[in-house]
Amino acid sequence: MRRSPEAKVSPCWIRTAAAFALAFLSRGNPYLANTYDVRLALVPDAAYRPMYDALFGRTYLAPGRLLNVLVLVVAAYAFLSAYWKPVQRLLGWFLIPLGRATLNVFIMHVVLIAVVANIPALQQQSIFLNTAAYAVVLGLLWVMVRTRFLFRIIPT
């Protein structure tokens, strides 16, 4: 018996559902990272902790983390493939120069994050101040790429 084309499940929907399921699992944990954090806390701590330690632990590269990255990259690629034109119009001016100088951006972001980590005002865990600081870091990286700052010393 042949299926009709309407009965097929699109692989795009499978990738999207997997990405949302992993995001839902992440938001479903019982721990708050800060006072503005929103958690669903649907899974009790006694059940969440063993599952997290077995599949998503940070000490060793757990299989859940690999699956999460794989699903996220595939879903992001599918999204950008389908919606590249609007994304390019909205964010291309910012993201494309950074992408063309990725090694330079990576090296400079390590330096800038080390500077940010040593600013005492940013140790107070103010979500608004820290967000502004990292937005400034991203803007500074973009300006450094556009002006080709240290491009003769740091590879692109």
TrEMBL record:
Pfam families per the UniProt record, alphabetical: OpgC_C
Keyword Membrane: yes
Membrane-crossing residue ranges in chain numbering: 59-80, 101-121, 127-145
Protein name: Acyltransferase 3 domain-containing protein
Keyword entries, A-Z: Membrane, Transmembrane, Transmembrane helix
Source organism, top-level taxon: Bacteria
Source species: Pseudarthrobacter enclensis
